[in-house]
């Protein structure tokens, strides 16, 4: 296993491994521990007290971050001809149906969000094996299968993120960029935590949020205190 670089080691010294930081402290500290020359994303990782192997303990949802993600979101609208003008006017980067189904079958997935109308789901169901593993398959629960195409595109462009707990009970989300003001990061994080708390499965016993960490893309992890999360 390769040794961490010098910049990372210097940044890690700013974090006391014996402490848990408040959300406010972490949002200030994450910028100081950023080690890359590019505008890194700021990520949250939560370990939840759920067993995702049981359907009634699956945690998945979406949230619109008040200050967006800082990332340009590329949207594909898979819609019938009657909805294509609406999708184009709403700002979708790619609009169509048959030609994009063919492109995706050939391996093209150069988008961040795919939105579809219910009437075309029968045609795009076969794309699940390609889009599913990439988290791109349209789903009514995340609002990406809808007749309100313009609203869905607007939400995706303005900072809506989808999240889903992995097989190990870990929930990962990007909530902004290092260039964000610490207040913006904090407010984005609070909105994310509130949404996760609302989604607590009734069958989940004991501690729901076991641990939480904030980090930049290339920086060390900052442990968050559970009390600051619970008060979000």
TrEMBL record:
GO process annotations (BP): regulation of translation; translation
CDD domains: Ribosomal_L1 (cd00403)
MF annotations from Gene Ontology: rRNA binding; structural constituent of ribosome; tRNA binding
Gene Ontology CC terms, in alphabetical order: large ribosomal subunit
InterPro entries xref list: Ribosom_uL1_bac-type, Ribosomal_uL1, Ribosomal_uL1-like, Ribosomal_uL1/biogenesis, Ribosomal_uL1_3-a/b-sand, Ribosomal_uL1_CS
SUPFAM superfamilies listed in its UniProt record: Ribosomal protein L1
This protein's UniProt keywords: Repressor, Ribonucleoprotein, Ribosomal protein, RNA-binding, rRNA-binding, Translation regulation, tRNA-binding
Free-text function comment from the UniProt entry: Binds directly to 23S rRNA. The L1 stalk is quite mobile in the ribosome, and is involved in E site tRNA release.
Complex and partners: Part of the 50S ribosomal subunit.
HAMAP family linked to this entry: Ribosomal_uL1_B (MF_01318_B)
Family: Belongs to the universal ribosomal protein uL1 family.
Protein name (Swiss-Prot/TrEMBL): Large ribosomal subunit protein uL1
């Amino acid at each position: 296993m390769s040794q961490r670089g010098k910049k990372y080691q210097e940044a890690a010294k700013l974090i006391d491994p014996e402490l848990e930081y408040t959300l406010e402290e972490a949002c200030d500290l994450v910028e100081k521990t950023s080690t890359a020359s590019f505008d890194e994303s700021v990520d949250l990782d939560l370990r939840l007290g759920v067993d995702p192997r049981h359907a009634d303990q699956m945690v998945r949802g979406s949230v619109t971050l008040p200050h967006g993600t800082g990332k340009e979101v590329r949207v594909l609208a898979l819609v019938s001809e009657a909805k294509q003008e609406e999708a184009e006017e709403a700002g979708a980067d790619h609009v169509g149906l048959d030609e994009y189904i063919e492109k995706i079958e050939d391996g093209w997935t150069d988008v961040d969000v795919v939105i579809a109308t219910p009437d075309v789901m029968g045609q795009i169901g076969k794309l699940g094996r390609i889009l599913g593993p990439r988290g791109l398959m349209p789903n009514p629960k995340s609002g990406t299968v809808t007749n309100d195409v313009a609203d869905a595109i607007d939400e995706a462009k303005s900072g809506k993120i989808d999240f889903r707990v992995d097989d190990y009970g870990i929930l990962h989300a990007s909530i902004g960029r290092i260039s964000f003001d610490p207040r913006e990061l904090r407010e984005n994080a609070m909105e994310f935590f509130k949404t996760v708390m609302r989604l607590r499965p009734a069958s989940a016993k004991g501690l729901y949020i076991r641990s939480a960490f904030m980090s930049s893309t290339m920086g060390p992890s900052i442990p968050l205190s559970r009390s600051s999360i619970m008060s979000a």
